[in-house]
Amino acid sequence: MTDTNVAHGDDAPPASWKKGDAIAAAGIGDGKGETVIGRSVTINRPAAELFAYFRDFANLATFMENVDRIDVLDGKRSHWVVKAPGGRTVEWDALVTDEAQDQFIAWASEPGADVANSGRIEFRDAGARGTVVTATILYDPPGGVIGKIIAKMFQREPAIQARRDLRRFKQLMETGEIATAAMNTRQREEELA
Amino acid sequence: MRALAWHGKHDVRVDTVDDPEIVNPRDAIIKVTATAICGSDLHLYDGYIPTMQSGDILGHEFMGEVVETGPKSTLKKGQQVVVPFTIACGSCYHCGKHQYSACDNGNPADNQDIGMELYGQPMSGLFGYSHLTGGYAGGQAEYVRVPFSDVGPIVIPDGVDDEKVLFLSDILPTGWQAAEYAQIEPGDTVAVWGCGPVGLFAVQSAFLMGAARVIAIDHFPRRLELAKRFGAETINFEQSAVYEALMEMTGGIGPDAVIDSVGLEAHGLFVDNVVDQIKASTFLGTDRAHSIRQAIVACRKGGRVSMPAVYGGLIDKFPLGAFMEKGLTLKTGQTHVQHYMPALLNAIMEGKIDTTFLISHRMDLEDAPKGYKMFHDDQDNVTKVVLKPGFN
User: Fold this and answer.
1) Which of A107, A123, B77, B134 sits between 20 and 30 A of A135, alpha carbons compared?
2) Arch. (CATH architecture) of B172-332
3) Please, are residues B64 and B32 in contact by the beta-carbon 8 Å criterion?
4) Residues of B with CB below 8 A from A132's CB?
């Protein structure tokens, strides 16, 4: 990453680049498809705690709004069920492709996925401020009818969605709950539907 | 339950709505015993604030009795509490520094986008003040769901009258913080623009912090009269030229610190109509938009500017040259209410700060629409309306 930044000419992270191949520099995927790169948030908890929560993929549906559920299949594999427009869902199996304890997790969908995708989440110690968490997601919508549906689904501003998911992760880790203005449980269920 | 809901410009009604419930573990439900209409509620009433939705329940100054608690709340049923208008989590970096109104987590994730776009960072959640600040139902209601109830509400000793402590929710800490931000040194002369509740509490606070003189500026005679009661000298800007008066009153030096507690009428956390509002304020040449400019020009060299007044967008003709050449310091921001509550409760209990003088009208929650209209139409005589469910 450092070399690429030198080539780019400054120290700005790829997410902010106006020029240059930011996707390649992000060091994820093969550069094809659409990418949301480098959304960072600082969470006032130790990296080990955040890593442990995130590494149990079954937890992710708690704060990822589009994720209906994730079933853990074994130490490396999980099955994702993600909400799509019109009450549909899209599904895939994901494999942890690389990881370092308390530092990062990288995963990618396995062949046959409704939507091919990969992601990486990094945890960097930030001293008294906690941990800087950076999420990078790459996805590649397929062709055909389902492709159109999925493309539409991901047109819901994936960058904004990723940012909101990270904020919810932060809220959950820092406060033990996810902030909501819902006045009662019925309103809360409507929000989550 | 019954609650005061916003339906549009100059259209607020007391509706029957669903009761609130515990949603999150740190929640509590408060049965409201007293709630006030704030000057900033008039901006909602006047339709200046975007991201309002029909049916939104207003009110951010309220107190009451704890009637239900979530498993992680530290409150107990039956306690009398005053609730801060800022919704802060107590566990993020900013809360750790007691910068509660900068809380990262009080505002629901989806609502933080607008703040990011407008200000570069989202602001904390607030009760009853549009969806920009979270879309939380407010306190002009019989019951309120209070998130993070283990951090926000302050427990009031038994037997203390609601009216003495209600203003801990917003305007008293806001006036106090304004004086603190003026970094008053003993013997200072402090000028305060605006004798609304915040300005009047800033006057009292400035004296408590050692100011020798406080000069209060407004055009409502009754409000100036209240400032005088606390020892302030007054300038009525309809009768006297403010800058000239301040120079003469300070021997040509200017006030050591200036406090703008006026702000823009159309202070607006406005999104779409920034340009319109700037045009409006320039065209009208209102004294209100003028206050911060005048304060900066009047302030002495090396002096301090404190701005509790709410501004939401852009301002033109800002006297940046005067600000730089005189070497001024500006401190501002929404109030870190939770930080100030305990000390100010003590000050009230010890009789150092008078709060009840402000209340001009008391009425039933059912009469809230009338209260809004009165407050809107007659700011000279209506200094503060307190609503009490079941008052009639």
Assistant:
1) B134
2) 3-Layer(aba) Sandwich (3.40)
3) yes
4) none
